[in-house]
Write a structure and sequence with these properties.
Chain A: It holds the Pfam family MtaB. The complex is a heterodimer of chains A (459) and B (220). Chain A has 459 residues and is an alpha/beta fold. Helix content of chain A is 50%, strand content 9%. Chain A has a seven-stranded parallel sheet with strand order 7-6-5-4-3-9-8. In chain A, strands 1-2 form a two-stranded antiparallel sheet. The longest helix of chain A is centred in the middle third of the chain and has 27 residues. Chain B contains nine helices and five strands. In chain B, strands 2-1-3-4-5 form a five-stranded parallel sheet, sandwiched between helices. In chain B, β3, α7 and β4 form a beta-alpha-beta unit. Classes of the chains: A alpha/beta (459), B alpha/beta (220). At the A-B interface, α5 of A face α4, α5, β2 and α7 of B.
Chain lengths: 459, 220
């Protein structure tokens, strides 16, 4: 039975802060995520190398070195706890034995760190979604579905605390929608295909999480959708206002995981997280300035405003002047979190949150849509319907309206072409009916039917 | 009255309906179809390219211009022998084995086609032997490979080695790109060029075509 979210989880905007959420999650090690403290979430990856039977031992050694290094640094800097994210590489999902082996190495090292340093840790295991390896993607069965589930299941049984994924349902249509800045197709990709796939996928993942002891289904990320839009916008390829709207229309898709039973913390690169926290009350992970080793973003500070874990996204094992990059990432995250937590202890959490917001919000429309008050206003409207497609369409309408108002009032820096693009998007959104199937029938002739299989989405 | 300047402006504006009217009018007047292509359609895209590079046009607008150019091309192509079709050169492009990322690759294809190159898209997750087979079949001047993962970037290296093994490496220039890829990596594995993004890749290919064919190649 899916959960329903028909009201905000907060009554007061001042309660909507980092480190605390109405529904905190407690890990096996005793970390209470969303319970008042912001924890660092460290992620890392291999340097450039092939993965196969002859190199997996080397890969395992590298992962072992990374985890030992980052946990040692975490202990040296007295962090109250560390969330480790293990986001698999494609080879690790395609060959689950590789993925499982690395997950076990990380869990063992975390146990050793608990004994050696008394360090509290938890692990989020994030198998990557290989279903799109089939072209067109096969979403509900087949080799890639089976290997992905095998990796999820064994990781849960081996002791993972959280499971997450950056799922890709609808991406095959969204990719071209992004480069053409076609908001209708993007709404179809996220609001119809994405939401339908999330419902199917997360029903399964919540069941799998239940196989483990105190393992939680944590949440998804629209990384391949909204973060791709952000990167394209940063390169000057598409308008920033388009990327900002894509960010918010990814919210109903992300919400589906929580309707199915996910409890957070949501994925770090899911910048739609603040909306999820406002609606569900579940803790969220975010990333920003300290993820600069992975990618540029215009939301480096504001991303932390209501975060419950603070991530570096990912960094490969390469040597920097001081240390290996993941250790450097760990240190940076710990100092970010220390400052936020010190502000909380000092009774200045709200002041600090608002500084994080103020330092970014006026400089980019993508930051502006993450302002807590904007998040509240839009979220309050989205919970008025339970139809995920209609929510997606509403998210687009509401974001366009918010941005037009903000630009007209001079509240956010804008490009001279932004208003033209907002008008264009509004016109396109106005042509979309309120019913998902009616929209599908309407847009069918514009879709490249070689790129997706409707039945894989229950269409 | 239809003029070549009108055609160029129409390409710049991305007006899909008007371009058909203008190009047909020039054909009806008896204008040389190659002149319509070079001085009208491609000339329009030659205005678009610098506007994109300077950040004054977005990709969707460039795509509209490219689509408009192609609409005009559809009318003039049947009037020209294939061998006479203006082209800067031929490039085959693919994302390497094990890697599914294709947005960057598709942007590159769009930019290359808009700039007068004939492009063969090999898709994503392209095996080493498939790159080799495509080189043998299509005889391109340039091979472009992309990778977005640290664990698939080495497939670029193995593809180059496969091109060497099959004796076709010297027939082509190899350009590479993708998030983890750098000029240093390109130098290490013996690629001929690296480009940070799709827009600079066109300049890179233009330079390579100049090395291969001389000045006439760049003027399409």
């Amino acid at each position: 039975m899916a959960k329903k979210f028909n009201q905000l989880a907060y009554r007061n905007l001042d309660d909507f802060v980092y480190g605390s959420s109405p529904k905190p999650v407690t890990t096996k090690s005793g970390m209470v995520i969303g319970g008042g403290t912001v924890y660092p979430e460290i992620n890392f990856t291999l340097p450039g190398m092939d993965i196969n039977d002859s190199t997996i031992k080397k890969a395992a050694t590298i992962y072992s070195n990374i985890i030992d290094g980052v946990l040692k640094r975490a202990a040296e800097l007295y962090t109250p706890g560390v969330l480790v994210e293990y986001e698999t590489l494609p080879d690790f999902t395609e060959h689950p034995k590789y993925g499982i082996e690395i997950n076990r190495i990380l869990i063992n090292s975390m146990k050793e760190a608990a004994e050696k340093y008394g360090l509290k840790t938890a692990i989020r295991t994030t198998p990557n979604d290989l279903r799109e390896m089939n072209r067109p993607p096969v979403m509900r069965s087949g080799k890639y579905w089976d290997t992905m589930l095998e990796l999820f299941e064994q990781s849960v049984k081996d002791g993972s605390d959280f499971i997450s994924i950056e799922s890709t349902g609808g991406k095959e249509i969204n990719d071209s929608a992004l480069v053409k800045a076609d908001i209708r197709k993007a709404i179809f990709a996220l609001g119809v295909l994405g939401c339908r796939d999330m419902e199917f996928l997360w029903k399964n993942l919540v069941d799998i999480a239940g196989l483990g002891k105190d393992c939680y289904a944590a949440g998804d990320s629209a990384c391949g959708f909204a973060n791709t839009a952000m990167v394209l916008a940063e390169k000057g390829f598409i308008p920033h206002v388009f990327a900002a709207v894509i960010r918010v229309i990814a919210v109903p898709r992300a919400l589906v995981a929580f309707e199915q039973g996910a409890v957070g913390p949501s994925k770090d690169c899911a910048y739609e997280g603040p909306f999820i926290k406002a609606i569900t009350g579940c803790p969220i992970s975010m990333e920003g300035k300290s993820a600069a080793g992975a990618h540029l973003s215009p939301i480096g500070n504001i991303a932390a405003a209501v975060a419950d874990t603070w991530s570096n996204e990912s960094i490969q094992q390469v040597k920097l002047l001081s240390e290996m990059a993941p250790i450097v990432g760990m240190e940076q995250l710990i100092y970010d979190c220390r400052l936020m937590n010190a502000a909380t202890e000092n009774g200045q959490q709200l002041i600090f949150r608002d500084l994080l917001v103020k330092s970014d919000a006026a400089l980019d429309v993508q930051a502006y849509v993450l302002k807590p008050d904007v998040v509240f206003r839009i979220s309050a409207e989205l919970v008025k319907t339970q139809d995920n497609f209609l929510r997606t369409k509403m998210a687009a309408q509401l974001t366009v309206a918010e941005l037009k108002k903000a630009i007209n009032e001079g509240k956010v820096k804008s490009d001279k072409r932004d208003m033209k693009w907002l008008d264009k998007m509004q016109k396109q959104i106005d042509t979309i009916p309120d019913d998902a199937i009616e929209f599908y029938n309407q847009i069918k002739s514009e879709l490249d039917m070689d790129k997706f299989i409707p039945s894989e989405y229950g269409l | 009255m239809a003029t070549l300047e009108n055609v160029s402006q129409c390409v710049l504006d991305g007006d899909l309906d008007e371009i058909k009217v203008l190009v047909q009018a020039l054909i009806d007047e008896g204008m040389d179809p190659i002149k319509i292509i070079n001085e009208g359609l491609i000339a329009g895209m030659n205005i678009v390219a610098p506007l994109f590079k300077s950040g004054e046009m977005f990709v969707p607008e460039v795509m509209e211009s490219a689509d408009t150019m192609n609409e005009g091309m559809k009318l003039v192509k049947p009037l020209i022998m294939d061998a006479d079709m203006p082209s800067k050169g031929k490039i085959i492009i693919g994302t390497v084995n094990g890697d599914l990322h294709d947005i960057g690759k598709n942007l590159l294809i769009m930019m290359m086609e808009s700039n007068g190159y004939v492009v063969v898209d090999l898709g994503v997750d392209v095996k080493e032997e498939d790159f080799v087979a495509a080189v043998k079949k299509h005889q391109p001047e340039i091979v472009g490979m992309s990778s977005l993962l640290t664990t698939t970037m080495m497939k670029i290296d193995s593809t180059i080695k496969q091109l060497i093994k099959e004796g076709v490496r010297d027939q082509v220039k190899v350009i590479i790109g993708g998030a983890p890829v750098t000029q240093e990596f390109a130098d290490d594995i013996g690629a001929d060029g690296y480009s940070e993004d799709a827009s600079t890749a066109v300049d890179l290919c233009d330079r390579m075509m100049y090395e291969i064919c001389g000045q006439q190649a760049i003027s399409a």
